[in-house]
Specification:
Blueprint lengths: L1 H10 L7 E2 L2 E11 L6 E5 L4 H18 L5 H12 L1 H10 L10 E3 L2 E11 L2 E2 L2 E2 L2
Length: about 130
């Protein structure tokens, strides 16, 4: 029975901030165009909630500045997410153990997603930087 439990453990992503060889568990925050699997853009691959919040708030503020033509309802939805980021992100990540199937927000044809995953660790001259 133990080979199956070992295989299951190795096939799962490490917890956020935990390492496994050349990889580290992280939060994946990005945008995705509905219906297109090849159109994913990552905003943050943070390994802490503090860095995730910093990256997310910066992105949302820049989004509002760059899109002054947004309809009032869409602008209010983005402002609400900006003002209530911590509570909304925590609630969203609590769904399905950090792998929610629904997007955090939808703006036009784009979806803002937040989930846990893993990424390659930063390495320089054979030494991990994180």
């Amino acid at each position: 029975m133990w080979p199956f439990s070992l295989l299951k453990k190795l096939s799962q992503d490490p917890a956020v901030g935990q390492t496994r060889g050349d990889y580290i568990g992280c939060y994946l925050l990005g945008t995705h165009t509905s219906g297109r699997d090849d159109d994913i853009s990552y905003i943050s691959l943070a390994t802490t909630l503090e860095q995730l919040q910093k990256d997310a708030l910066q992105y949302l503020q820049e989004f509002l500045q760059q899109h002054p033509e947004l309809a009032t309802a869409e602008r209010l939805a983005v402002q609400d997410l900006l003002e209530n980021w911590s509570a909304r992100a925590d609630a969203h990540l609590a769904l399905a153990g950090g792998k929610p199937s629904k997007p955090l927000a939808v703006q036009g044809g784009s979806e803002l997603f937040l989930r846990t995953g893993m990424r390659a660790r930063k390495k320089e001259k054979g030494v991990y930087l994180e």
